[in-house]
Structure formats: C-alpha cells, structure tokens
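User: Second chain of the day. Same drill as before.
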Amino acid sequence: MTGLRALIRDPWAGSEDCYAGAYRDQFEQLADSLSTPDQHLRARFNPRDTHVELYASSGAAAGTVMASVRIFGEACVPYQAEVWSPHFAEQLPLFTLILGLPVSHVRMDLVP
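Assistant: Same format as last time:
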C-alpha cells in the first residue's frame, strides 16, 4: 500500500477510568450549545491533567482552549464540577443543566 494513512486519535482516549469519560455525551452537548456561528467548540479529554477541555475548532481562535472542566467525586459518585476559564461565567446555569451537577466557576488560569 502506498500513500499516506491518516492517524486518527480518539480525543477521549484515557478517560475511561475518570468521571469525565462518563460525561462524554454531556460535554459534547455543552460544546455544541456554547458554539456560535463564528466559533465552533469541541470537547476533548486531557489525560495528563485528567480534565475536559472545551476548545475552539474553528474561527479566529481555532485550537485555543476556552475552558477546562474537572469533575470531582467520591466513592464513584460525582458531586461537583469546576469550570476554569476566563469565559462562560454567565453560562454556568447551562453547565449545571447539561452536566446535572453543581458547577462552580473559577476565573483563573485554564489549567486547574
């Protein structure tokens, strides 16, 4: 076989043993809900820091992480999410609605 073969990477690889993996569909729904006509957002798992990143996949900010979200829990029961971002403070009710968890907003560095 000749030619180049595309390397396909699962953006959720490594999330199977984390709370984030159980919320994959909700994070993808959240990214779609926060997208605008000028900027489409996507969700991916960051295995190094075990959090989910909402990032711009198009528009002027393509590739930029817009928010980092970490879900906390105990004894296999998630109880809270934290959103680390300089954005989305006004959309916290949307995070709470889609994730079904209490959500706090930390307006600081993107990586917790």
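The radius of gyration is 15 Å.

User: Great, on to the next one.
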